[in-house]
Amino acid sequence: MKNFTLSSNDLQSQMTKKHVFDEFGAGGENLSPHLKWENAPEGTKSFLVICYDPDAPTVSGWWHWCIANIPASITEFESGIEEYPENAVQGLNDYNKLGYDGACPPPGDPAHAYHFTVYALDTEELDIEDGTQPAMIMFMANAHILAKSTITSYYGR
C-alpha cells in the first residue's frame, strides 16, 4: 500500500514572498500554496488542511489556515485558492480572518517553520461552522484522523 502523501508545485524548504503575508511590513503576495494529496487510506470521507507556525512568539503558536469538511473527491488546491469546495468550512486564522494568510515572523527572529498538513478523516463532516477556532476544529477532528501528511517550509525576515 502506498503512503498518504502531500506535495506542492511551489513550496520549497524556504518559503518565497508569494506565500508571505501582505501586511505588517512583510511585503508578500499572501497567496496560499498549491497542495496536492494522494493515496488517502481506505475509509477516507473528507480532508482537513491546515497551516500552523509553532515558532510564533506566543504560548500557542500561530494558525495561518484551516479548512475542514473537504470532500474526499477533492485532492488538490491550486495556488491562491479563493473558492473552496461546497460544504467546506473555513476556520478563523490568528489574523482573525477566514482563509489563508501567510507567513509573517517578527523581523530578526530565526526562520519559522510553517507546517502545511492534510488530514484524512473517517467522517464526511465535522459539526463546525465558518469562523470556528482551529484548536476546536482539531479537537473535533482528533477522533476521526486516519492519516496525515505534512510539508514544512521555512521563512524568516
Automatic annotation (TrEMBL):
It comes from the Bacteria. InterPro entries: PEBP, PEBP-like_sf, YbhB_YbcL/LppC-like. Transmembrane segments: none annotated. NCBIfam families: YbhB/YbcL family Raf kinase inhibitor-like protein. This is Kinase inhibitor.
